[in-house]
Amino acid sequence: MSLATRARPAAMALGLVALAAVPVLASVLDQPFYVDLFRRVMIFAVAALSLDVILGYGGMVSFGHAAYLGIGAYAVGVTTYHGVSNGYAQWALAIVASMVVALAIGAISIRTSGVYFIMITLAFTQMLYYLGISIEEYGGDDGMRLATKSQFPGVLDIGNPAAFYYVVLGILVLFLYLAHRLVNARFGMVIRATKSNEPRARAVGFSPYPYKLIAFAVAGGMCGLAGALLVNQTEYLTPEFMHWTRSGEIMFMVILGGMGTLVGPVVGALVFLLLEQVLSAWTEHWQIILGPFLVLVVLFARRGLWGLLPPGAGRNG
Amino acid sequence: MGEVLLEVRDLVKSFGGLIATHHVSLDVLAGETCAVIGPNGAGKTTLIGQLAGDLVPDAGSIRFGGADVTALRAPARSRRGIARSFQITSVFRDFTALDNVALAVQAHAGSSFRFWRPARRDRALRDPALEILESVGLGARADVLAASLAHGEQRQLEIAMALATRPRLLLLDEPVAGMGAEETQQMIRFLGTLKERHTIVLVEHDMDAVFTLADRISVMVYGRIIATGAPDEIRANEEVRRAYLGEDAVV
Amino acid sequence: MTVLLIVEQVLNGLQYGVMLFLMAAGLTLVFGIMNLVNLAHGSLYMVGAYLATFFYTQTGSFLLAALLALPATLVVGIVVELVALRTLYERDHLDQVLATFGLILFFNELVAIVWGRSALYTTLPAWLSGHVVVLPGLRYSVYRALVILVGLAVAILLWLVVSRTRLGMLIRAGASNRTMLSALGVNVTLLYTVVFGFGAALAGLAGLMAGPIYAVQTGMGEQILIQVFVVIVIGGIGSIRGALVGAILVGMVDTFGVFVKPMLGTVLSPVAADSAGPAIASMLIYLLMAVVLALRPQGLFPTRAS
Question: What domain range is B4 assigned to?
Answer without folding.
Answer: 1-81+167-251
